[in-house]
Design goal:
Elements: H1 3-9, H2 20-28, E1 32-33, E2 35-37, E3 40-42, E4 49-53, E5 60-65, H3 69-88, H4 91-107, H5 109-120, H6 124-152, E6 156-158, E7 161-165, H7 171-184, E8 188-192, H8 199-210, E9 218-220, H9 225-233, E10 239-243, H10 246-256, E11 262-266, E12 272-275, H11 281-293, E13 305-309, H12 310-324, H13 345-360, E14 364-367, E15 386-389, H14 396-399, E16 406-412, H15 415-422, E17 430-434, H16 438-444, E18 452-455, E19 474-475, H17 480-484, E20 488-490, H18 491-494, E21 509-512, E22 525-527, E23 530-532, E24 538-543, E25 549-554, H19 558-570, H20 573-576, H21 579-595, H22 597-608, H23 612-633, E26 639-641, E27 647-655, E28 658-662, H24 668-681, E29 685-689, H25 695-706, E30 715-717, H26 722-731, E31 737-740, H27 744-754, E32 760-763, H28 774-777, H29 781-786, E33 787-795
Parallel strand pairs: 1-5, 7-8, 7-10, 8-9, 10-11, 12-13, 12-17, 13-16, 15-16, 17-18, 18-33, 28-29, 28-31, 29-30, 31-32
Antiparallel strand pairs: 2-3, 4-5, 6-20, 11-19, 14-15, 21-24, 22-23, 24-25, 26-27, 27-33
Helix pairs in contact: 3-9, 4-6, 5-6, 6-7, 10-27, 11-12, 21-23, 22-23, 23-24, 26-27
Bound molecules: NADPH dihydro-nicotinamide-adenine-dinucleotide phosphate.
NADPH dihydro-nicotinamide-adenine-dinucleotide phosphate (NDP) binds near residues 232, 243 and 267.
Length: about 800
């Protein structure tokens, strides 16, 4: 071949990575992978193994132990036994272990890379230059967090035993994202890798063994979904960290409902890649290659929806098709290829079906050509880089995750339309924004509902910056300081009284509001800034402390909730108001409550039997709480992460959106105020169900809201049957977060029902908070639950 031909075809000679060392490693293990439990290699209790193959050539890699409930039980026992001591050895000692792991990973980086590629089918260039260096960086970074835990996280403690379940697309990297923070914070781990990709997890366990990690600190159980399920359902595990499909994430949310297990879910995505007309199109094309053809598109945050401004759509499509056709697909060990093998024949079938569906739905197909011999179906699982144009934003291929090298392209006209189309997804994991105009990019980024936004870049990750999604992409963050909160808890939370909270349901009165007797005035619902009668036309009685019937409160229902959510949606400008403005409004509420303090104190005495003095104290404390939230409104700020590239990452704290709050029954007015204020201070709109016994105080309170410049729809108050309202709120599609203080059964119900829409939930499992305690109420816990952290990556350099 002449040099000229080489330049035009871009054909190079073969440059295959030598896999002898990896093959020898497999031979030494007799091509058999066992569990690593309590510092020992253990055969599966059932003695069953399954095959794992190289998807690029279908060659057998290993027999993998098929983990069962019994294997998981052994691992959990070991982890539990080891946990106290692992925390007790202190941050410095844990830091040294994590540092040793990082060093070992670097020393064996080539073996890790080759094994990862053999097992997963990803190009060696990617495992060698991206996955493994990031793994090492993760352990170094978290060694640092272990070292400084006692000062940075004063008052916190580890959760205990953590169950971790990871997918096959970044096997070792996902292990690192989960294991490093968990161990750094003093937890012990039971981890299950995906059935397709166990190899690097086994090598990792070997390294843990070699560095003398105390037994039981890291336990590896191999197997398929059954082993994952056994971890999820084990009663002696304190937390589940999961990465995988939204479908399994939902099952995990349901299975853990009411158990008190903390969970973090990193699920699917359909991330938008938005190109404005002033973007540098050549950079954009390379960005798209990284966004959707990196790792064969099997990336949860892959930029799988291309949104092009109409004026440059044709030009960009032409450039992109030209570039796509030059991508080389083939043997994953070849250092020359761009796209490797799809993980498994079943995934390949799914991709083919989705593309056929796209074409049937009217999309135009553009594909690179596969080299016949290298990529023949009988050799391995290969699929060509694919672009679908003329895609309708509502079509299946624009809405569903394909998890393959398939890009769905559509157009938009204005920045606001771009935001609208980008947010037209049930997912919210990531997005890329391409524009040479920094004003446009920084205006659009906060408006996109996604946990990560890359500006003029894509698919960049770092241990120091949080990663995770909104909506059906899950909740919780991995990486950065924000990710560590997934593995620790405030010590006071572990000491809450377990005295059962019981609901005191008032009986329904079979008469209309207007016919009620002995009421001094008509209490109403408060929706969209207006006092409204309940749709049901029913009321519930309110008794004073002596049991006398003193008034009635509206019995709110499904329709009232629907109206309240609509009102909350219309109040979205509250979320974009400046923090200073929000603080001013909160201070004004406090000021107006102060003016009517005596009246509120009297009402507290009447409803609860507290002395006049205690009533006054409660109002004072409520005012204090409002001041605290106002104070935090403009101080609970984001952070700037500085990853090791020429990039700054703006970790911005954003409101969740609409938060449903079921206030604590036992904490009356103080509980009502203490829950709403931090939520609205952070820019959320709330739909709140107050305590039934003291609901009249909530309905008195809306008069204060009306005089305090609180925009209509920011606070919506629905009185009524707490259980029925809780059920409706948990099932509502347009609620982003749910805070619930009530019974253990109610907590379980909230968690279970919230799975359908993947709301972020915060429940008390029937435990009692101390609403008078400064330690509990002025902690950042409320604020943390009131925000999502979005990391916006901004590269710099002339
Ligand atoms: P899954 O969600 O099924 O698997 C992820 C992990 O969960 C694996 O370790 C899996 O085990 C385990 N698992 C499976 N079922 C259960 C269960 N009931 N309880 C607990 N753990 C369970 O993803 P798949 O690998 O099957 O891929 C399916 C689709 O999911 C892909 O096509 C893609 O769309 C999406 N996906 C998304 C990922 C992401 O990062 N967001 C990553 C991977 C997939 P095992 O695999 O061993 O059976």
């Amino acid at each position: 071949m002449s040099i000229k031909e080489i330049f035009t075809t871009m054909e190079y000679g073969s440059a295959s990575e030598n896999s002898d060392v990896a093959q020898q490693w497999l031979t030494n293990l007799n091509n058999t992978f066992n569990h690593y439990i309590n510092g020992q290699w253990q055969q599966p209790k059932t003695n069953q193994y399954f095959d794992s193959n190289n998807p690029a050539n279908k060659e057998h890699i290993a027999n993998v132990a098929d983990g069962s409930v019994d294997d998981v039980a052994l691992a959990v026992t070991a982890a539990r036994k080891a946990q106290k001591q692992w925390f007790a050895i202190g941050g410095h000692a844990r830091a040294k272990y994590l540092y040793a792991i990082a060093r070992q990973i670097q020393k064996h980086s080539r073996l890790f890379s080759v094994l990862e590629t053999l097992d997963n089918g990803k190009p060696i260039r990617e495992s060698r230059d991206i996955d493994i260096p990031l793994v090492a960086r993760h352990f170094y970074h978290h060694a640092g967090w272990a070292q400084i835990m006692s000062t940075e996280f004063k008052g916190f403690e580890p959760l205990g035993v953590v169950g971790q379940i990871i997918p096959w697309n970044f096997p070792l990297l996902m292990l690192a994202w989960k294991v490093a923070p968990a161990l750094a914070m003093g937890n012990t781990v039971v981890l299950k890798p995906a059935e397709f990709t166990s190899a690097t997890a086994v090598l990792f366990a070997q390294i843990c063994d070699e560095i003398g990690l105390p037994k039981g600190v890291f336990n590896l159980v191999l197997g398929n979904g059954k082993a994952g399920q056994a971890i999820v359902e084990h009663s002696n595990i304190d937390k589940i960290a999961f990465t995988g499909s939204t479908q399994v994430g939902r099952l995990i949310r349901q299975a853990t409902a009411g158990t008190g297990k903390k969970i973090s879910l990193e699920l699917g995505g359909k991330s938008a890649f938005i190109v404005f007309e002033d973007a540098d199109l050549d950079s954009v094309v390379e960005g798209i290659v990284d966004a959707i053809w990196f790792n064969q598109g099997q990336v949860c945050c892959a930029g799988s929806r291309l949104l092009m401004q109409e004026s440059i759509a044709d030009k960009l499509t032409t450039k992109l098709v030209e570039r796509m056709k030059k991508l080389k697909v083939g043997d994953s060990l070849s250092k020359n290829i761009d796209v490797g093998a799809i993980i498994d024949a079943r995934q390949l079938v799914k991709i083919k079906e989705m593309v056929a569906l796209g074409v049937a739905e009217g999309a135009t197909l553009h594909q690179a050509t596969l080299r016949e011999t290298e990529c023949a179906d009988e050799n391995g699982c290969f699929y060509p880089p694919t672009l679908l144009t003329d895609v309708e934003p509502a079509s299946t291929i624009a809405q569903q995750e394909i998890f393959g090298p398939v890009l769905a392209a559509m157009t938009f006209r204005s920045p606001s339309e771009a935001v609208q189309v980008a947010n037209n997804s049930r997912y919210g994991l990531a997005a890329s924004v391409w524009s040479e105009n920094i004003n446009v990019a920084l205006d659009v980024a906060p408006k996109i509902k996604a946990g990560v936004v890359w500006i003029n870049s894509t698919n960049i990750f770092d241990a120091g910056a949080g990663f995770g999604g909104y909506r059906e992409s899950g909740f919780g963050r991995e990486g950065g300081k924000e990710g560590l909160f997934e593995y620790i808890q405030e010590s006071w939370l572990t000491k809450l009284s377990t005295k059962t909270v019981t609901s005191k349901a008032n009986k329904k009165v079979a008469k209309s509001v207007s016919s009620a007797l002995s009421i001094d005035r008509t209490a109403k619902l408060f929706i969209g800034g207006k006092q409204v009668r309940p749709d049901s036309g029913y009321s519930l009685p309110v008794y004073d402390v002596s049991g006398a019937h003193i008034a009635e409160i509206p019995d709110g229902s499904r329709k009232d909730i629907r109206n309240a959510v609509e009102a909350a949606n219309k109040a979205s400008s509250w979320s974009s108001a400046t923090a200073h403005n929000r603080a001013q409004v909160l201070y004004f509420i406090a000021e107006n409550l102060q003016t009517r303090a005596a009246e509120f104190a009297q009402r507290i005495s009447q409803l609860t039997g507290k002395s006049a003095k205690d009533g006054e104290k409660e109002v004072d404390l409520a005012i204090n709480r409002i001041f605290s939230s106002a104070a935090w409104a403009d101080k609970y700020e984001g952070q700037i992460h500085v990853p090791p590239q020429r990039i700054v990452t703006l970790a911005m704290k954003e409101p969740l959106g609409n938060i449903a709050i079921v206030a604590p029954e036992e904490a009356g007015f103080l509980g009502f105020v203490s829950t709403i204020m931090p939520a609205i201070a952070m820019g959320n709109r709330v739909i709140v169900v107050p305590s039934q016994q003291t609901a009249l105080l909530a309905t008195d309170f809306y008069q204060i809201l009306n005089t305090s410049d609180v925009p209509a729809g920011v606070i919506n108050i629905i009185t009524g049957d707490r259980e029925a309202l809780t059920d409706t709120l948990a099932k509502h599609y347009d609620i982003d977060g749910f805070w619930y203080w009530g019974t253990a059964e109610g907590s379980k119900h909230v968690e279970f029902e919230s799975a359908a829409t993947m709301k972020r939930t915060w429940v008390n499992h029937g435990k009692l908070y101390d609403w008078t305690s400064d330690e509990q109420m002025n902690s950042e816990l409320f604020l943390r639950h009131a925000v999502e952290i979005k990391n916006v990556w901004v590269p710099y350099g002339a």
